[in-house]
Structure formats: structure tokens, C-alpha cells
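Hypothesis: this fold can be encoded by more than one sequence.
Test: take the C-alpha cells below, design a sequence, compare later.
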């Protein structure tokens, strides 16, 4: 066999070996691409903040578990606790104590909950393409398409965006209580006074309430982002390797990003892995940044303000006490005590030498 034929044969053998290897690499790339570009969305789940929280999934009320999945017609109630229901990784429903919620509709076209009691704070974020969200109570129906608002049985308040509020019919004569559709804008609230809607501006206390709820929203958005990162460990490891970062470096960078210290558009342009899976991470981070900007712009620190108010109240009380005249009804000294003291003075003057009496008086 000539040398030329031998080289040709060797090349063919090498090619036969390389073809399966290349095929495997291509297959791995395809599988990897599918893995990192797809991001499965959790439809409904529960985060427990504190205290006693129960769920009814059709078998009666039972103790809830943190991060447990929820479904259509499931009920959640907080007895002496607080919880957050997350729907389609887009809607965050914070439940205050003594609140009960039922999931009545659960589709990407519309999500609806029925709030039979208590108070909720609702954040509708633009993350997973949900079109509409409704919160119904015994007296109102609030419909939104991206905003933050609270709902009590007797009131609705909007911190940003717009909310359409429908006042439901009652048993009173229809001419007196026709259904009313109100549009609430940022900083407005509607309260029912004897079933009559009254729209007012937010009070300082309302603004404090909003800031507190947005702080909790940020906390759960960060938790949602961490869960999204965990869905794509391969991509996460690849980014760390390309950037030369540790887990702490990533956490520090995300904190800086959340506080607006980096331009999000530039981050997206320079991303080493511009894949669809990062789209949801980007949207969650943008929501966190938006919430932080709102909190910063409000410049309200509820705890410090409350302490300052308490100090001011105490100071006012002290000033009032100083200005008050002496109490006319105060108890007068007992005359018998006065008489005893006078007699003792007479005795002292009788038996104590003059120089000792003067010394004692000086002391």
C-alpha cells in the first residue's frame, strides 16, 4: 500500500471517529440551548411570612407549608400569621392577619381571587404576560393590568398605576345604590361610608403603609429571582466562569443593580449569555429596581417617624405639666403631724444648749 493511500485511509478513519463526536456535541448544544432558553413558570404557590397560616385544597383546613403549590379553588387564610401568594410569578398577594383568600380563576388571560375577609397588598408585575387580575370582596371588585394596590373589605387604595373599582349592588333600592365603576389613580383611595363610595388622597399613614408593603414586595421578588437562577444552574456557572466571579461577587453585583448603580440596558447588551432564560431574570430585576426607586422617592422611614411622634407627644405632655397650676385638691398635711413637730421644736429649745441649737439650725 502506497503512502498516499495509507494517508487517505487514515483520514477516513479519523473522520469516522469524529462524526459521532461532533454529533454528540451538537446534540448537547441543542439540549443545553433548550434547557437555558426555557423557563418553566410556577402557576401558584405560597410563601409563609410568619405565624399560623392554613390552606384548604378540598380536604378541609390544614396547616400550610412554606413554598407549597396552590391550585384553582384553593383557599388560604392567615389566623395569627402573614403570607404571600404568588401567581404565575407575576402577581404577589400579601395577606395580613385574619385574611382569607380563594383562587377563583387561574389562567394567563385572567387571574381572580375572592377576598372574603381581612386585608391584602397586591403587586401586579409585568413578568409572565398575565393580561388581567381581579380582586373581589363582598363590596367591591378591583380590576388591574399592572400596578400596586391594597384591598380591604371596605376600601381600596392605589400606590401606582390605575385600578378600576366596581362598587357592588346591595339590598338597598337600586335607584339609591346603582353599581358604580370608579377609576383610581396613584395616591388615591376609595372608602365605603354607609355603602357610599368616598374618594380621598393618601394620608401620611397610608404612605407609610405603602412603603412597608413595597419593602416586603422587594424581599419576595428577590426570592423569586433566586429561584429563577436555580432553574438554570448550568447557565449560572457559565456566566460566573466567563466573568471570573464567585457567588458573593454575583450577589454584590445584583445588590448594586437593584439600587440602580448600573444601567440595565447596558447590562443586557453586555450579557455573556443573551438567552431567553435571562429575560425573566431581567424583568424581575427591573421590578426590584422600580420598587426601590419608589421607596427612595417617598423618603419615609416608618419606624423613625413613629418614634419621633412618640417623643414629641411625651415632650408636649411634659410642657403641659409644667404649665399646669398647682392642684387645689392636693392632700393637706395632717394637723397632728404639724402639732407634733411644733412640740418637738419647743422641747429642743428647752433641753438643747443655745450653741448646739444654732449649729443644728445652720446644718
Amino acid at each position: 500500500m502506497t503512502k498516499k493511500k495509507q494517508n487517505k485511509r487514515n483520514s477516513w478513519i479519523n473522520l469516522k471517529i469524529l462524526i459521532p463526536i461532533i454529533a454528540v456535541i451538537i446534540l448537547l448544544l441543542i439540549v443545553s440551548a433548550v434547557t437555558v432558553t426555557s423557563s418553566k413558570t410556577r402557576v401558584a404557590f405560597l410563601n409563609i411570612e410568619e405565624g399560623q397560616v392554613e390552606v384548604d385544597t378540598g380536604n378541609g383546613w390544614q396547616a400550610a407549608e412554606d413554598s407549597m403549590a396552590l391550585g384553582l379553588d384553593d383557599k388560604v387564610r392567615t389566623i395569627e400569621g402573614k403570607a404571600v401568594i404568588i401567581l404565575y410569578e407575576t402577581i404577589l398577594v400579601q395577606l395580613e392577619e385574619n385574611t382569607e383568600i380563594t383562587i377563583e380563576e387561574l389562567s394567563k388571560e385572567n387571574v381572580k381571587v375572592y377576598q372574603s375577609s381581612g386585608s391584602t397588598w397586591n403587586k401586579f408585575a409585568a413578568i409572565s404576560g398575565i393580561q388581567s387580575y381581579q380582586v373581589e370582596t363582598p363590596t367591591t371588585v378591583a380590576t388591574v393590568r399592572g400596578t400596586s394596590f391594597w384591598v380591604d373589605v371596605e376600601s381600596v387604595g392605589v400606590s401606582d398605576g390605575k385600578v378600576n373599582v366596581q362598587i357592588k349592588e346591595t339590598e338597598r333600592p337600586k335607584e339609591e345604590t346603582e353599581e358604580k365603576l370608579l377609576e383610581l389613580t396613584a395616591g388615591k383611595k376609595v372608602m365605603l361610608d354607609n355603602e357610599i363610595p368616598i374618594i380621598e388622597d393618601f394620608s401620611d399613614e397610608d404612605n407609610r403603609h405603602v412603603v412597608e408593603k413595597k419593602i416586603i414586595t422587594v424581599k419576595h421578588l428577590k426570592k423569586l429571582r433566586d429561584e429563577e437562577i436555580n432553574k438554570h444552574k448550568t447557565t449560572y456557572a457559565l456566566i460566573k466562569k466567563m466573568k471570573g466571579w464567585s457567588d458573593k461577587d454575583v450577589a454584590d453585583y445584583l445588590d448594586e443593580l437593584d439600587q440602580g448603580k448600573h444601567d440595565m440596558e447596558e447590562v443586557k447588551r453586555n450579557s455573556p449569555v443573551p438567552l431567553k432564560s435571562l429575560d425573566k431574570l431581567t424583568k424581575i430585576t427591573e421590578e426590584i429596581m422600580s420598587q426601590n426607586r419608589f421607596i427612595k422617592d417617598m423618603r419615609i422611614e416608618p419606624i423613625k417617624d413613629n418614634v419621633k411622634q412618640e417623643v414629641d407627644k411625651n415632650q408636649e405632655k411634659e410642657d403641659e405639666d409644667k404649665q399646669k397650676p398647682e392642684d387645689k385638691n392636693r392632700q393637706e398635711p395632717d394637723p397632728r403631724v404639724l402639732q407634733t413637730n411644733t412640740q418637738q421644736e419647743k422641747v429642743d429649745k428647752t433641753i438643747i444648749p443655745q450653741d448646739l441649737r444654732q449649729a443644728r439650725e445652720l446644718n
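Confidence is low (pLDDT under 50) at residues 24-37, 302-311, 324-330, 340-363. The radius of gyration is 35 Å.
Hypothesis status: open.
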